[in-house]
Write a structure and sequence with these properties.
Chain lengths: 112, 110
């Protein structure tokens, strides 16, 4: 009963470092997305994918890259971390056309 | 994305009281969703609404999709301590992306 799995749970980076947040789902969902959650801001969409090989930008894509080589995996890459990217990151997935979106447990990222 | 206004921002109530929170938008949505998030966890779906005017219950929770398609409310009856958390509304127009409200933080004292 894995659902949406994110790793790592916690990460501290130095400014300028790069890293990848991993996301995997075992529900054969076509749609996957990444959100960031900041205090008082709710959740904001970074990037999303409607299927393998297809990605698109959300509301706050700058500083992040994504790829979707398989249905199961949707990694989020920070190319050169900045303190403004300190946040909690959530990966989510759903069936094509489905309204029930499942979230992972979150990845807490601090950039110092 | 479209801005959702969620209110109140926070609520501090006693166990047994009823709770009401709402969400409004300047744009219409085809779907309204209500999520609960507990500390250290991701949001969990509570109720999904698919038609204007729809009223849906899930245990002590009741939510309605506004007739104008620009608003929704969530009621919690007879609150208990485990209702503590942040409640988010989310609107979905088409496609897959959700537009989230900023959340209502609920604290329940025994």
């Amino acid at each position: 009963n894995a659902g949406v799995t994110q790793t790592p749970k916690f990460q501290v980076l130095k400014t300028g470092q790069s890293m990848t947040l991993q996301c995997a789902q075992d529900m054969n969902h076509e749609y996957m997305s990444w959100y960031r959650q900041d205090p008082g801001m709710g959740l904001r969409l970074i990037h999303y994918s409607v299927g393998a090989g297809i990605t698109d930008q959300g509301e706050v894509p700058n500083g992040y890259n994504v790829s979707r080589s398989t249905t199961e995996d949707f990694p989020l890459r920070l190319l050169s971390a900045a303190p403004s990217q300190t946040s909690v990151y959530f990966c989510a997935s759903s069936l094509q056309g489905g309204n029930t979106i499942y979230f992972g447990e979150g990845s807490w990222l601090t950039v110092v | 994305g479209q801005q959702l206004n969620q209110s109140p921002q926070s609520m501090f109530i006693q166990e047994g009281e009823d709770v009401s929170m709402n969400c409004t938008s300047s744009s219409i949505f085809n779907t309204w969703l209500w999520y609960k998030q507990e500390p250290g966890e991701g949001p969990v779906l509570l109720i999904a609404l698919y038609k204007a005017g729809e009223l849906t219950s899930n245990g002590r929770l009741t939510a309605q999709f506004g007739i104008t398609r620009k608003d929704s409310f969530l009621n919690i009856s007879a609150s208990i301590p485990s209702d503590v958390g942040i409640y988010f509304c989310a609107g979905q127009l088409g496609g897959y992306a959700l537009n989230f409200g900023k959340g209502t933080s609920l604290l329940v004292t025994p």
